[in-house]
Amino acid sequence: MNTIRKELVIIGGGPAGLAAGIAAREAGVEDLVILEREHEAGGILRQCIHNGFGLHRYGEELTGPEYAARDIAKAEELGLDIRCDTTVLSVDGDRRVTCVSRTDGLQIYEAGAIILAMGCRERPRGALGTPGTRCAGVYTAGAAQKFVNLEGLMPGKRVVILGSGDIGLIMARRMTLQGAKVLACVELMPYSSGLNRNIVQCLQDYDIPLYLSHTVTDIRGRERLEAVTVMEVDAKRRPIPGTEQVFECDTLLLSVGLIPENELSQRAGVELSPLTSGAVVDDTLQTSVPGVFACGNVLHVHDLVDFVSDESFRAGRAAADYLKGQAPKGGTLAVRDGEGVRGVVPQKLHPDQDVTLMFRPAGVYKNASVVVEADGKEMARKRAMIFTPGEMVALPLKAEKLAGVTGDITVRMEVR
């Protein structure tokens, strides 16, 4: 077993890990390694062959593989050490990373700093408790996307999608283009959890119905899926008797939420937020464990990869500052979720640093404002025609607004 000393170890070679590595190298960190469990870098972007990536970062539309290729090319130009086919087994509070690979066997990296960039995973059927048989034909939307886009396999021909997350919406269009019949997209909540542009481009443009306040209450089929029962739900999300609809289908795709991959974070002793399921971080993206940073979808699930990259660039620069002994000093201010707000990140602020607060609204708010308050005073406000849970809100906050603040900072929605 080899023990290797590194200034910086980055766990995950997707868009977050690549961006963090690029920023850290450009900030002067020479001795770093990126550990990636897949056989090549790029993460989920490799199977996202649709366009729409890069509009904020590059000002042009790219496919997922094209977006990833630019970061991979930059990483290669900078000479970053990316170890693919390497699975990280554990991270401890002393910044020791244990990993294994077929070529190098079991290794331990002793790191000056660690960046957690493991991404997220899909919520599976087992987490839903949906009644019915355990037949073939039930997939997560991401698994179906991998089958179709990377392996050239079609999961089925008659499809129902449960949940209106972005991957599910995109797969509704993709399955249609491949010749399948998408019968319906069924959403438990009274609003979609995906971006509005995906609702328009992936459902409405292909006449695929979206059933809001509905859910799948039964799955039928012995060996292969034969049909699902869909029912309307009330305000407490309970099925309403008499609203049953039966869709004969051979495929059910689940797009019911993403969960940050934080098992390694937990083993390292990192404090997790019950709202985001990601780490609790300060404005440098440092976790509760000194020298351990988190960014991207392992921190909180983003809408756009452009925002993942931006956040991860900041994590890479912050890790470099930490290694140089230039991290912000002094105490931090706590950030709290107020009415209508869910999962503000970061949760702690240094009062002398500019920061962008990010969160998701707890519901749909029309003609509303986001208000940031502390010590009984308003510090910032952002108004919009509509706020929805499907689109993350970003609210810049200048350090000058934090001067003299002593109490907690609260972020809330205001409707007038």
What does this structure look like?
The chain is of the alpha/beta class and 416 residues long. The protein folds into 3 domains: 1-122 and 257-327, FAD/NAD(P)-binding domain, CATH 3.50.50; 124-256, FAD/NAD(P)-binding domain (3-Layer(bba) Sandwich), CATH 3.50.50.60; 331-416, Immunoglobulin-like (Sandwich). It contains 9 helices and 25 strands. It has helices at residues 15-26, 55-58, 64-78, 141-149, 166-177, 196-203, 263-267, 305-323, 399-402; strands at 2-11, 32-35, 81-83, 86-91, 96-101, 105-116, 120-122, 138-140, 158-162, 181-186, 210-211, 214-220, 227-232, 245-248, 251-254, 258-260, 292-294, 333-337, 341-345, 348-349, 355-361, 365-374, 377-387, 393-397, 409-415. Strands 1, 2, 3, 4, 5, 6 and 17 form a 7-stranded mixed sheet that branches. The protein has a 5-stranded parallel sheet with strand order 8-15-9-10-11. A 5-stranded mixed sheet has the order 20-18-25-22-23, with no helix packed on it. A hairpin with a 3-residue loop joins strand 5 and strand 6. Helix 1 (15-26) runs parallel beside helix 8, helix 4 (141-149) runs parallel beside helix 5 and helix 5 (166-177) packs parallel to helix 6. The radius of gyration is 22 Å and the shape is globular. 43% of the residues are buried. The model has no long low-confidence stretch (mean pLDDT 95).
